[in-house]
Design goal:
The longest helix is centred in the middle third of the chain and has 15 residues, at 42-56. The protein has helices spanning 7-14, 21-32, 42-56, 58-71, 79-86, 93-105, 128-141; strands at residues 2-5, 37-41, 73-75, 109-111, 125-126. It contains 7 helices and 5 strands. The protein has a single domain (2-136), classed as Rossmann fold (3-Layer(aba) Sandwich). It has a 5-stranded parallel β-sheet.
Length: 142
Protein backbone atom coordinates (compact mmCIF):
# COMPACT_ATOMS: atom_id res chain seq x y z
CA UNK A 1 0.00 0.00 0.00
CA UNK A 2 1.52 3.28 -1.16
CA UNK A 3 0.25 6.30 0.77
CA UNK A 4 1.16 9.96 0.45
CA UNK A 5 0.89 11.71 3.82
CA UNK A 6 -0.42 15.28 3.78
CA UNK A 7 1.54 17.86 5.73
CA UNK A 8 -1.09 18.06 8.48
CA UNK A 9 -0.73 14.35 9.30
CA UNK A 10 3.02 14.60 9.82
CA UNK A 11 2.68 17.83 11.82
CA UNK A 12 0.13 16.14 14.09
CA UNK A 13 2.89 13.75 15.14
CA UNK A 14 5.80 16.18 15.32
CA UNK A 15 3.86 18.81 17.25
CA UNK A 16 1.85 16.29 19.34
CA UNK A 17 -1.45 17.84 18.23
CA UNK A 18 -4.37 16.40 20.14
CA UNK A 19 -6.64 14.66 19.38
CA UNK A 20 -5.16 13.87 15.97
CA UNK A 21 -1.71 12.66 17.03
CA UNK A 22 -2.83 9.10 17.85
CA UNK A 23 -4.24 8.11 14.46
CA UNK A 24 -1.45 9.89 12.60
CA UNK A 25 1.22 8.25 14.76
CA UNK A 26 -0.37 4.85 14.20
CA UNK A 27 -0.12 5.30 10.42
CA UNK A 28 3.47 6.47 10.63
CA UNK A 29 4.33 3.47 12.82
CA UNK A 30 2.88 1.16 10.14
CA UNK A 31 5.21 2.89 7.68
CA UNK A 32 8.18 2.39 10.03
CA UNK A 33 7.41 -1.33 10.12
CA UNK A 34 7.30 -1.43 6.33
CA UNK A 35 3.59 -2.21 6.17
CA UNK A 36 2.92 1.03 4.29
CA UNK A 37 5.14 2.63 1.68
CA UNK A 38 4.98 6.22 2.90
CA UNK A 39 5.42 9.21 0.62
CA UNK A 40 5.75 12.87 1.51
CA UNK A 41 5.63 15.67 -1.01
CA UNK A 42 8.88 17.63 -1.33
CA UNK A 43 6.99 20.81 -0.40
CA UNK A 44 5.76 19.10 2.77
CA UNK A 45 9.34 18.76 3.98
CA UNK A 46 10.09 22.45 3.41
CA UNK A 47 6.84 23.50 5.08
CA UNK A 48 7.52 21.27 8.07
CA UNK A 49 11.03 22.66 8.40
CA UNK A 50 9.70 26.21 8.43
CA UNK A 51 6.92 25.53 10.97
CA UNK A 52 8.85 23.28 13.35
CA UNK A 53 11.87 25.61 13.41
CA UNK A 54 9.59 28.29 14.83
CA UNK A 55 7.92 25.94 17.31
CA UNK A 56 10.77 23.63 18.33
CA UNK A 57 14.04 25.32 17.36
CA UNK A 58 16.66 24.40 14.77
CA UNK A 59 18.27 21.48 16.59
CA UNK A 60 15.00 19.58 17.05
CA UNK A 61 13.93 20.53 13.54
CA UNK A 62 17.09 19.09 12.02
CA UNK A 63 16.55 15.80 13.89
CA UNK A 64 12.92 15.64 12.73
CA UNK A 65 13.76 16.36 9.10
CA UNK A 66 16.45 13.65 9.14
CA UNK A 67 13.91 11.18 10.56
CA UNK A 68 11.34 12.13 7.94
CA UNK A 69 13.86 11.69 5.13
CA UNK A 70 14.66 8.22 6.47
CA UNK A 71 10.99 7.22 6.76
CA UNK A 72 9.38 8.75 3.68
CA UNK A 73 9.96 8.39 -0.02
CA UNK A 74 9.95 11.95 -1.28
CA UNK A 75 7.47 12.71 -4.06
CA UNK A 76 9.28 15.28 -6.18
CA UNK A 77 7.83 18.58 -7.31
CA UNK A 78 8.95 19.53 -10.78
CA UNK A 79 7.56 21.45 -13.75
CA UNK A 80 5.27 18.55 -14.73
CA UNK A 81 3.83 18.45 -11.20
CA UNK A 82 3.34 22.21 -11.02
CA UNK A 83 1.82 22.41 -14.49
CA UNK A 84 -0.61 19.61 -13.67
CA UNK A 85 -1.57 21.37 -10.44
CA UNK A 86 -2.02 24.68 -12.21
CA UNK A 87 -4.39 23.15 -14.75
CA UNK A 88 -6.29 20.96 -12.29
CA UNK A 89 -9.75 21.66 -10.95
CA UNK A 90 -8.47 22.06 -7.39
CA UNK A 91 -9.27 25.38 -5.76
CA UNK A 92 -6.20 25.23 -3.47
CA UNK A 93 -2.89 25.20 -5.37
CA UNK A 94 -0.91 23.66 -2.50
CA UNK A 95 -3.32 20.70 -2.34
CA UNK A 96 -3.21 20.41 -6.13
CA UNK A 97 0.59 20.20 -6.03
CA UNK A 98 0.47 17.53 -3.33
CA UNK A 99 -2.09 15.55 -5.37
CA UNK A 100 -0.06 15.78 -8.57
CA UNK A 101 3.12 14.77 -6.73
CA UNK A 102 1.29 11.74 -5.30
CA UNK A 103 0.13 10.65 -8.74
CA UNK A 104 3.53 11.08 -10.38
CA UNK A 105 5.24 9.22 -7.51
CA UNK A 106 2.86 6.26 -7.84
CA UNK A 107 1.00 6.67 -4.55
CA UNK A 108 -2.30 4.79 -4.41
CA UNK A 109 -3.86 6.89 -1.63
CA UNK A 110 -3.56 10.23 0.11
CA UNK A 111 -4.14 10.56 3.84
CA UNK A 112 -5.18 13.97 5.15
CA UNK A 113 -7.47 15.57 7.70
CA UNK A 114 -8.66 17.93 4.99
CA UNK A 115 -10.49 15.64 2.55
CA UNK A 116 -12.97 18.27 1.39
CA UNK A 117 -10.17 20.09 -0.44
CA UNK A 118 -9.40 16.90 -2.37
CA UNK A 119 -12.81 16.38 -3.96
CA UNK A 120 -11.23 16.59 -7.43
CA UNK A 121 -8.68 13.88 -6.62
CA UNK A 122 -8.01 11.12 -9.10
CA UNK A 123 -6.87 8.72 -6.37
CA UNK A 124 -8.67 7.84 -3.12
CA UNK A 125 -8.23 10.31 -0.26
CA UNK A 126 -8.92 9.28 3.33
CA UNK A 127 -8.87 10.70 6.81
CA UNK A 128 -6.48 8.83 9.14
CA UNK A 129 -9.12 6.85 11.05
CA UNK A 130 -10.78 5.72 7.82
CA UNK A 131 -7.46 4.61 6.36
CA UNK A 132 -6.65 2.73 9.57
CA UNK A 133 -9.95 0.86 9.20
CA UNK A 134 -9.11 -0.04 5.60
CA UNK A 135 -5.62 -1.24 6.55
CA UNK A 136 -6.99 -3.34 9.40
CA UNK A 137 -9.65 -4.85 7.15
CA UNK A 138 -7.03 -5.75 4.54
CA UNK A 139 -4.81 -7.25 7.27
CA UNK A 140 -7.71 -9.38 8.55
CA UNK A 141 -8.28 -10.74 5.04
CA UNK A 142 -4.73 -12.08 4.84
Amino acid sequence: MKVLFDTNIILDVLLDREPHVHASLYLMSRAERGEITAFACATTITTIHYLTAKALGMEATSRHIASLLALFTIAPVNRLTLDGALHSEFTDFEDAVLHEAAIHAGAQYIVTRNIRDFQQAKIPVYEPKTLIGIINTLSDEH
